[in-house]
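Bug report

Summary: structure tokens for EamA domain-containing protein differ between web form and batch submission.
Environment: batch mode, default settings.
Steps: 1) Submit the sequence below via batch. 2) Compare with the web form result.

Sequence submitted:
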Amino acid sequence: MESFVSGVASSFSSVLAKCALDSDGPVQRHLLRPSTCCGERPEEWTDKCKLADAMLRAMFFVTMLSLNAMGLSKHIDGMKSNGSAAGVALSTCWNFTATVAFGAVLFGEQFFFNRIWLLGFSLILLGGWLLSTVNISQTAKTKKS
């Protein structure tokens, strides 16, 4: 479970970094531009809109740092409970899976039309599932002894 939380937290922190640092990111496209204080180009923005943009970016940046810290902490916990190699592999598997989901849902990225990409993604999911089941059964056997 720690590896899952680590991977998803790390992936979502990347989404927040994109929102905080991208000059034409989703925050600017969807939150600020439709409002009355913001024009289409940043040169047209009022001081109120520039302040709102800076505050939103700062909020996303601080949240990104917090999620990264939590993800790193959970990553270390996952390595302790699953072993270092399995913990890293599981965290990376969940990070990649969450990145695909966030990219498709939030940014409209289309991954699913490439057969080789789908094969690779399927193998990553299969490997993550296999590692999860092996670690669970080994942990149960160890606790029973």
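Above is the batch result. After comparison, the two runs are identical; trailing whitespace caused the diff. Residues 93 and 124 are 6 Å apart (CA to CA). The chain has five helices and no strands.
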